[in-house]
Amino acid sequence: MYAIIQAAGWPIWLIIAASVATVTIIIERLLSLRKSQVLPTGLLAKVVQEYRSQGVNAEMLNKLAANSPLGRVLASGLRNVKSSREIMKESIEETGSAVAHDLNRYLSTLGTLAAVTPLLGLFGTVIGMIEIFGSQAPTGGGNPAALAHGISIALYNTAFGIIVAVPALMFYRYFASRVDDFVVEMEQQAIKLVEVVHGERHH
Q1: What DSSP line would sit under 91-124, residue for residue?
Q2: Which of 61, 108, 117, 141 is most buried, most CB within 10 Å of its CB?
Q3: Packed helices 58-67 and 43-54: angle between N→C axes, nearest 10 degrees
Q4: Contact yes or no for 67/43 (Cβ under 8 A)
Q5: Which is nearest to 18 in space by CA: 141, 150, 115?
Q6: Which residues contact 115 (CB under 8 A, 6 or more apart)?
Q7: Quick check: pTM over 0.85?
Q8: What pLDDT sits at residue 52?
């Protein structure tokens, strides 16, 4: 592997740095965007049951808000449980926007890395081409070793740029779609809570 990095020249280090950042973000988001972490099963039913048996208190709201992103959204609604349906929904929407922003954390960086790494590969290719042309003597007698090194830089950087960009783009699209699904489901559960609290629905 070290021999490949040597053959690829110094531009490869930019792509390696981008790949480390990409892998770190992918692992972090895979752990953070698990459904059990974002939308715990049965949380809404548990909250409704607790609300009906004990009502709302600060300890219950704080515990719920710390539970998960869905818990934060439901807690924001219950904080305004004595207000009108519209105020309760507004509070939920405000918290929902903040939660959606948190769920999208690092995704723009991942998308940027997916777009930039092929350009870094192209940059390495250009450097390789410069080395190739630089190795050609004006009289026509080229330096085979310098020529081979220039070709190595050009090809390895192009390949590595694509290798990093493809999974980065795939995971970016996957995470963005997952966040959208989570946000829709959170909205649906929050609306159910509003309807249950205001007596329009039995849960």
Answers
A1: HHHHHHHHHHHHHTTTHHHHHHHHHHHHHHHHHH
A2: 117
A3: 180
A4: yes
A5: 115
A6: 165
A7: no
A8: 86
Burial 130-167 (b: 16+ CB within 10 A, else e): ebbeebeeeeeeeeeeebebbebbbbbbbbbbeebbee
Contact by Cβ (8 Å): 182, 33 = yes
Counting every residue written for the chain, the total comes to: 203
CB atoms within 10 A of CB 193: 22
Radius of gyration of the chain (CA): 27
Q: Are 39 and 182 in contact (CB under 8 A)?
A: yes
Compute the half-sphere exposure of residue 120: CA atoms within 13 Å on the CB side of its CA: 24
Block residue for tokens 């003597």:
137
Half-sphere exposure of 124 toward its Cβ, with a 13 Å CA cutoff?
Answer: 31
Residues 6+ apart with CB under 8 A from 183: 96, 99, 100, 103
Mean per-residue pLDDT, 42-67: 89
> For residue 47, which of 184, 194, 193, 182 has the smallest C-alpha distance?
193
Q: Which of 46, 59, 56 is nearest to 82 (CA)?
A: 56
Give the mean pLDDT of 153-170: 91
Report how far residue 106's alpha carbon sits from residue 29's, in angstroms, rounded to the nearest whole number.
8
